[in-house]
């Protein structure tokens, strides 16, 4: 009959039963002649969890359901098997919630609700039958199927929607119907509008109610009027309403629409970002810690000034190399430490400027090796302080370790280990320049990817071991006589060093882009300044401002005391 409808001129109103729902129509049938029909539809209630079930259902979740798999391929125009044609493979992230309402409305229909209630009634009757049998007999499986009918005639329960289901004296359910008006539009969309109710059990003439003014009869069409969605917005259908009813939703982050009534916003390329109106993609600004900006200029100037200060201290020590205070604290180790600190300050300049392959390859390795030379020199100094005190005892064997070979050997051995670690790092997984287009909304951040984070932390961890070793030895030797009491200054310098780098790790990981680079430069400058000021500034003060203390007499007096 449906196939003959396009050729029939309908001049009357169709009135259909609840089980002949013309809204759930095949796609090949023309239904405009049903415009204005009145449908008696069973009243439904919202079933908890039903929409969530439909939104999360997927063929991968129920692989044995062949119907669901076929429906999925038709609905999403995809395939689960590689075939020739335009259809692509089905996505694992597809959801029924993304289908057009004109194709699938995920709200429960009246037919589905009656089926759900019927299954619920059978389950209730089975439960009652099993309960009665278990009270009388131990074998609850020995029953005849026809006995279920007696329990079905006496159902009385509330379904999961909270609605009461009960049969009357004639074994009929208390049915309630909504009167729906089927309205079609000229753009081939339709909607069901509730215009009344029919409750057979009602009294006093209230069994049939209808709002006649709300009914659209088949002789006239309703016009759908919707305001346009401007650029920067997309149309989103309103759930449970006609397809022509939609909301204007702003485009999601990193998406734009530059046309009116766009169904789906377009994502900007990775190197672009949407403007505030989200109707145009703008190129991201390339950013890195440059010398020209105030932060880069301040850090570079500080590094240059501190390196000059270190060179000045080295000049003071070389000029006064034969004075007691310089000779008493191992002159060669002081030179090595000052030269390594000079390069530590300068290596921070490798972190400023646009990252390149060579820049990324050198900056962490240079910093690690220079700092290791400085820390191993400090460790050698602390060892020399302890050996020097023991060498003053009669018959001590520590005198043979007081030459220049022993401390230089400590520095070379400790540095060689760091060089091997850096060589393994650079050979297996070296750092390389990288553009980060995801961290910042409007900027394309250029930086260095450290390659292997494990190798990076091994390098930092080794420097931490040297610093802790120096601090431990210096702390134990802090109460030696004043003649050799450089250990106190080394203890303070190691405290500064450890404090800076312990606070560096969480701060480094909580920042992005050029601020992360600035944090590392600040830690390099701060820890190097701590070593320079705590170990050498007190000596320069004596050499330059109190030369009367830089004689052998104070040393002899301290030794005798």
UniProtKB/TrEMBL annotation:
One of its GO terms (molecular function) is G protein-coupled receptor activity. It comes from Sarcophilus harrisii. The keyword Transmembrane helix applies. The gene is LOC100918461. One of its GO terms (cellular component) is plasma membrane. Its main location: membrane. It holds the Pfam family 7tm_3. The chain crosses the membrane at residues 295-318, 333-353, 365-389, 410-428, 454-477, 489-509, 515-544. Gene3D superfamilies: 3.40.50.2300, GPCR, family 3, nine cysteines domain (2.10.50.30). It is found in: Cell membrane. This is G-protein coupled receptors family 3 profile domain-containing protein.
């Amino acid at each position: 009959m449906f196939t003959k409808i396009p050729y029939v001129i309908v001049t009357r109103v169709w009135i259909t039963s609840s089980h002949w729902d013309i809204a759930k129509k095949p796609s090949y049938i023309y239904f405009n002649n049903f415009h204005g029909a009145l449908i008696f539809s069973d009243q439904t209630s919202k079933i908890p969890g039903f929409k969530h079930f439909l939104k999360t259902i997927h063929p991968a979740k129920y692989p044995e359901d062949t119907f669901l798999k076929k429906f999925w391929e038709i609905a999403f125009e995809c395939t689960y098997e590689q075939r020739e044609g335009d259809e692509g493979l089905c996505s694992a992230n597809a959801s029924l919630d993304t289908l057009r309402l004109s194709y699938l409305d995920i709200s429960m229909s009246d037919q589905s609700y009656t089926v759900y209630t019927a299954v619920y009634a059978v389950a209730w009757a089975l439960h009652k039958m099993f309960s009665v049998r278990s009270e009388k007999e131990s074998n609850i499986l020995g029953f005849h199927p026809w006995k279920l009918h007696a329990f079905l005639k006496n159902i009385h329960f509330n379904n999961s929607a909270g609605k009461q289901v009960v049969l009357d004296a004639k074994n009929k359910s208390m049915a309630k119907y909504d009167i729906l008006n089927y309205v079609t539009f000229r753009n081939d969309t339709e909607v069901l509008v509730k215009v009344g109710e029919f409750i057979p059990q009602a009294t006093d003439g209230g069994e049939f109610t209808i709002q006649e003014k709300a009914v659209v009869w088949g002789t006239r069409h309703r016009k759908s009027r919707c305001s346009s969605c401007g650029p920067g917005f997309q149309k989103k259908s309103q759930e449970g309403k006609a397809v022509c009813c939609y909301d204007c939703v702003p485009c999601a982050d990193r998406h734009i629409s530059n046309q009116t009534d766009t169904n789906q916003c377009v994502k900007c390329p990775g190197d672009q970002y949407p403007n505030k109106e989200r109707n145009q993609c703008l190129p991201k600004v390339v950013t890195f810690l440059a010398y020209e900006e105030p932060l880069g200029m301040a850090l570079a100037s500080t590094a240059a000034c501190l390196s000059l200060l270190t060179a000045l201290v080295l000049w003071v020590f070389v000029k006064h190399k034969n004075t007691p205070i310089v000779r008493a604290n191992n002159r060669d180790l002081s030179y090595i430490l000052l030269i390594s600190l000079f390069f530590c300050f300068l290596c921070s300049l490798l972190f400023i400027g646009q990252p390149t392959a060579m820049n990324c390859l050198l900056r962490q390795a240079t910093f690690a090796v220079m700092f290791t030379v400085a820390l191993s020199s400090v460790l050698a100094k602390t060892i020399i302080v302890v050996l020097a005190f023991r060498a003053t005892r009669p018959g001590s064997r520590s005198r043979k370790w007081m030459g220049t070979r022993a401390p230089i050997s400590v520095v070379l051995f400790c540095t060689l280990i760091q060089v091997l670690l850096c060589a393994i790092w650079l050979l297996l997984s070296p750092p390389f320049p990288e553009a980060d287009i995801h961290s910042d909304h409007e900027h394309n951040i250029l930086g260095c990817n450290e390659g292997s984070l494990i190798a990076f932390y091994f390098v930092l961890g080794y420097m931490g071991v040297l610093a802790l070793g120096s601090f431990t030895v210096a702390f134990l030797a802090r109460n030696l006589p004043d003649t050799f009491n450089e250990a106190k200054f080394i203890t303070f310098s190691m405290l500064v060093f450890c404090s800076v780098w312990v606070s560096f790790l969480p701060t480094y990981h909580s920042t992005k882009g050029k601020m992360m680079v600035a944090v590392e430069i600040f830690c390099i400058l701060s820890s190097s300044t701590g070593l320079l000021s705590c170990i050498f500034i007190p000596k320069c003060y004596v050499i330059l401002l109190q030369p009367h203390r830089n004689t052998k007499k104070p040393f002899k007096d301290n030794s005798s005391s």
